[in-house]
Specification:
The protein is of the alpha/beta class. The protein is elongated.
Length: 384
C-alpha cells in the first residue's frame, strides 16, 4: 500500500506542467543517487548532494523570472514537491541553507579539484555506477571529498560571516574530531578570537589556512581561558581548592580548553627543596611540545610574588625533572586579573612563564573583536 501511495505521489509530481519540471527531475536524480550510497559515506553524499542541490537552485534562479519574490515562491514550490516525493528534509529553511552553502563554498570548489556528482546510467553494472561518482581528493582530505564534516556541522558553520573564522572552525573540527556540541561550545567560547589575540597578523592568517598548529609555547595560549563548564557561580565565594577540585572533576573539558596535546600528570604535586615543601596546583605534559606545563591557580589579582614563585617551580622542573631531550618547562599562571606592566617588569624577556586570565562565563565575541581591532591598530602604529 505504501509503495502504491509513493508511486502515485511521484506520478502526480511528475505530471505537473510548470517551470520546475526540469529542476525537479534534476534534483530527483541527485537525491535518488545519493540515497543509494553505502552507509560509510552517508555524510559525504549528503553534503555533496546538498551542495549540488544548492547549485541547481542558484542556476535556476539566475535563469528564472526577474520579479520580486520569485525566489521565495520558487523555494516554497520546490519544497512542497520534494516533500511530497521524498518526505522530510526539504523545508524552505533547509533549501535556503543548501543555497547558501553552495554560494559560500563555490569559490573554494573552483580552486580545488572539482566535485562531480552525476546520476548513473541505470543500464550500468553496480561497479560501474560506483565508478561514475568522481569526487576527487584534496591533498589534506582523508576522504574523497573536499567536504570533511557532516551536514549538521556545516549548518552550524554557515552563520559565521568571517570566512577566515569559518575556515578555522572547519579545519579544527575536522582535525580534532569535534562533535557538533563541541563545535558549538568552541564557537560560543570564541576560540578563534581568543587565539588570534595571542598572534601577529601572519599568525592570524595561518589560523584560517591551517587551524591551530602547535610549534611553540605561545601557540597553546588563549586570551582568556574560558572555564564556564566548571559550574562555579561567578558571584559566589570559592577558594583555590574549590577551583582546583572543579577542574579535576571536569578534567576532560579542561583538557579540551587547554588545547592540543595535553596529558594530565598530577594535582598538588609536592617537591622538596632545601628542607621546605612546595606544592604545584596542576602538572600537565604536552606531547607536541615535548615539555612539562606547570599551572598555578590564583583567585585574585596577580602579584610579582606569584610570578617569582612560578619562576622557582619552572627552574626546579628544568633542573631536576625534565630529560635532556625534552623542551623547557612552561609555567602558566591562571588568574582572575593581571597587570601586563607588572608581568613585563618582573619576568626576564626569555622567561618561559605566561600569565593568562580566566573567566567563568562565555566571553562576548563583540568585546573580543573590539580588542582584536585595538590590538591591530597598536601593531600598525608600532610598525610606522
Amino acid at each position: 500500500m505504501k509503495k502504491k501511495t509513493a508511486a502515485k505521489r511521484t506520478a502526480v509530481a511528475r505530471a505537473k506542467p510548470d517551470g520546475l519540471a526540469r529542476l525537479i527531475a534534476d534534483v530527483r536524480q541527485l537525491i535518488q543517487f545519493a540515497r543509494r550510497g553505502v552507509a560509510s559515506v552517508v555524510d559525504t553524499f549528503q553534503v555533496v548532494t546538498n551542495f549540488e542541490i544548492g547549485r541547481r537552485i542558484v542556476e535556476h534562479e539566475q535563469k528564472g523570472e526577474k520579479r520580486a519574490g520569485y525566489g521565495q515562491e520558487m523555494l516554497k514550490a520546490l519544497s512542497t514537491r520534494l516533500t511530497e516525493e521524498f518526505g522530510r528534509g526539504f523545508s524552505v529553511t533547509n533549501l535556503q541553507l543548501m543555497r547558501k552553502f553552495f554560494i559560500e563554498n563555490k569559490n573554494r570548489i573552483q580552486q580545488q579539484p572539482t566535485v562531480k556528482l552525476a546520476p548513473p546510467d541505470i543500464s550500468q553494472t553496480p561497479s560501474a555506477i560506483s565508478a561514475s561518482v568522481e569526487i576527487q581528493q584534496q591533498p589534506a582530505a582523508k576522504s574523497g571529498s573536499p567536504f570533511t564534516l557532516s551536514w549538521t556541522h556545516y549548518v552550524e558553520l554557515l552563520p559565521i560571516k568571517d570566512p577566515d573564522e569559518r575556515s578555522f572552525y572547519e579545519i579544527e573540527a575536522t582535525n580534532e574530531g569535534w562533535s557538533v556540541p563541541e563545535l558549538k561550545r568552541q564557537k560560543a567560547s570564541a576560540l578563534y578570537h581568543r587565539l588570534a589575540l595571542s598572534r601577529d597578523k601572519a599568525g592570524i592568517k595561518r589560523l584560517a589556512r591551517e587551524g591551530q598548529i602547535i610549534t611553540k609555547p605561545e601557540d597553546v595560549l588563549k586570551n582568556p581561558f574560558v572555564l564556564e563548564f566548571l559550574g562555579l557561580d561567578e558571584k559566589a565565594g570559592y577558594s583555590e581548592s574549590d577551583l582546583e577540585s572543579a577542574i579535576i572533576t571536569h578534567l576532560e573539558k579542561f583538557l579540551l580548553e587547554l588545547g592540543k596535546g595535553f596529558l594530565f600528570e598530577a594535582r598538588q604535586k609536592r617537591f622538596t627543596f632545601d628542607g621546605d615543601h612546595y606544592f604545584l596546583d596542576l602538572v600537565f605534559y604536552n606531547r607536541l611540545l615535548r615539555c612539562y606545563v606547570v599551572i598555578d591557580l590564583k583567585l585574585d589579582k596577580l602579584t610579582h610574588q606569584d610570578l617569582g614563585q612560578m619562576q622557582m617551580y619552572v627552574n626546579y622542573y628544568d633542573r631536576h625533572v625534565k630529560l635532556p631531550e625534552e623542551s623547557l618547562t612552561i609555567g602558566l599562571l591562571l588568574c582572575r586579573e593581571k597587570n601586563d606592566a607588572v608581568v613585563e617588569l618582573t619576568l626576564p624577556k626569555d622567561a618561559n612563564i605566561h600569565a593568562k586570565e580566566y573567566q567563568l562565563y562565555l566571553p562576548s565575541k563583540e568585546l573580543l573583536k573590539a580588542k582584536l581591532l585595538e590590538w591591530a591598530r597598536e601593531e600598525k602604529a608600532k610598525a610606522r
